[in-house]
Amino acid sequence: MWPYYLLLLCIISTSSVVVATVREIEIDLSVGVVNPDCYTEGYEVLLVNGQHPAPPIRVTKGDEVRITVRNAEDSNRETTIHYHGIFQIGTVEADGLPYVTQAPIPPGGTFQQNFRVIDQTGTYFYHAHSSLQDDAIHGPFIVYETDEDWPSSDDDDNDDVYFSYKKLREGPYEYDDERVLFFSEWWHQDQSDRLDYLLGTNYKGLTQSHSKLINGRTVYDPTILQDDVDDCDGYSVINVEPGKEYRLRIIGSTTFSTLGFSIAHHMLTIIEVDGELIEPYDTDFVQVAPGQRFSALLRADQPPESYYIATKSYFTGDPNSNALAILRYNNDRYEKRGYTGDSGKQQANKPTIFEPCSTSQALVRDMPYLPDEEDAHPRGWLFPDFRPVSPVDHDFYSPPDRTIVLTPVEQEMPDGTTRWIINNHMPPHWRPSLLENLQHMNHRTVNRTAVDMNWHGYSDGYDEGHQTYPLEVGEVVDFVIQSTILSGNNKACAAHPWHTHGMVHYALANGIGEYIHELDCDIRTYSTPIAQDTTLVYPAPRIGLPSGSPCSWVKIRLLVTNPGLWGFHCHITSHMLQGMMTVLEVSPERIPILQ
Ligand SMILES: [Cu+2]
Q: Helix (H, G, I), strand (E, B), or coil: what is residue 588?
């Protein structure tokens, strides 16, 4: 589990005007073997500081963050690290998007990422942005409003169990403490073999992950005795004190599945989406797409026992999810059964593995109910009902300056590989990186023809020279993401969680079938849009359409503010690697590093 404060070394620097806290953070990437679901022996992956998941990074709004990323000499793979949801205002070079904002870090290489966390708080995460490394290189990145809002104890901070009567706060909300629920996925196939399959000529559709993980753990096969598997840590345990209220920081670091979860006998009150505080929304079911984050208040107000946190997988064709965790009320009677202290990990050498709802029912209370796919999202799950605490000053019913429809289609290429091609634009090729290319060019000669031609109206606006979508600060641009029928995966209409780097966006509307601008331009299905950085294109039910046919869509609005080169992509990592990604080139003449 995650040692607390491990990464953080705090230096206070003062100047005559501003007092900024500098957080020096070190990310050492090295090869290690992990076996997060207790399946045979695991395999080698690249890890942050030898840990899976990576240790949390905690900062306070306004901090100067200085991160040194070192790639081990023997790692045998290049990499970059991205801070998902962090705006990188004025520091696009620290965004960690390979071949766009930097050349990847080679084995033995070091890269420095310096940025300020400006005007944002909440729940984020960091992850590798190269190949499939984000299955193992990923950890929470949490931004507090003030230093006083940092938690004083931690789920896994064994030596630091004491009651703090100080409330923690963000905006209008206060709570006693916080816990992280970090969702991810695990394949038994080694990352390089899986990458070869995805990008090679034998590709026949995405393969299901073998396990879904909560805080980096689950048990693939609970019938295998723990003694048969070395280093099996069992299910994650989230410890709570009776009567306390917790902020659950829920992080969707899955790379394929959207996971829904419930906690038996407990309601949750959602208060944050992707860093934006929302009006409290009570629910017993939270659905988390890859790249999304939520905070929910959890009151430990039930009889002090243990309760399952159970999950279901959505939009992958297989609802089964083996991600389980246990919400455990601190209670003396469990100490006798081999648990001690306030640790998220059981302390015995060979920990007990809970068997879901079988012989251990007396230990862990009831499996919660989770809705089926068609019931979970008839209008876009709960998103249409969420209301921001502080709405942005913008009329979302007004027309945009431009609407750009992106239609990614899964296509077999002449060489037999499969790629997602967006609006027929060939996959971009920038070396060593787009940002560096722009440094060597006179960036004032950016081809703006596409912008001028399409300034008003409904068209593509792609710059074939830069292989980007040029946007200008101050523009209001609507993007429609059109989902199309897959060629593999039983010709399903796929769900795609689209993520904007550098800027938030606001979901305005979604629909099934094809987006037709003349008919659909004024539709609004999200009446109180909230600032998100990851929005799901929900799939339509199967209707027997041929591959490539438009089947569902979402429209998001960008209030363009931040000069930079910002990735805009599906957060299903395999889709991204197969081409479902583009770059928004925002006012390059105003990017500081290009001055
Ligand atoms: Cu996708």
A: helix
